[in-house]
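User: I'm new to structure prediction. If I give you an amino acid sequence, what do you actually give back? Let's try with this one:
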Amino acid sequence: MIRIVGRETRTLESAEFHTVGEAFEKIGLSPQRYVPLINGNPCTSDRVIGEYDELVFIEVFSGG
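Assistant: Good question. You get back a string of structure tokens that encode the predicted 3D arrangement of the chain. For your 64 residues, that looks like this:
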């Protein structure tokens, strides 16, 4: 399962991505705007996504 959390939250049930970087590209998210987490742990774009992994993209934004 893939969740995208930020100003807009959505969930993708099934996806066929091999790495986090591939998921960024195919979903259309910017690595500069989102932090990827696999099973609650920060990861890099070259991290392979396992069959039972939960991938979450958290949008980074700030305010003042």
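You can read the tokens as a compact description of the fold. Here is one thing that stands out. The chain has a mean pLDDT of 92.
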